[in-house]
Write a structure and sequence with these properties.
four-stranded antiparallel β-sheet, alpha+beta
Length: 83
């Protein structure tokens, strides 16, 4: 029990605030990637950037699928929003 309490205290003491650096994206409104496996297109990953007041918002959409012998082995879809 003492180890858990000590770990929590150390975690709270040692954490520091972080700030993201987004200046290198100031000229971009979106990034689009195609995903390949064995030189075959299997999906995409897109980012769209929004700027509202002092906020920088990133919307991300990813979708890909791995098919072998006509059978879907792996399928992945995700949508996220980060501020």
């Amino acid at each position: 029990m003492k180890k858990h309490i000590l770990s929590i205290i150390l975690f709270l003491i040692c954490t520091t605030p972080t700030f993201s650096h987004v200046e290198h994206y100031k000229d971009f409104n979106s990034l689009e990637y195609e995903l390949f496996r064995n030189n075959k297109l299997i999906g995409y990953h897109n980012y769209k950037f929004e700027r509202k007041d002092n906020n920088f918002i990133v919307n991300s959409v990813i979708k890909f699928e791995i098919i072998k012998l006509g059978v879907t082995l792996y399928k992945y879809d995700a949508v996220s929003k980060e501020e």
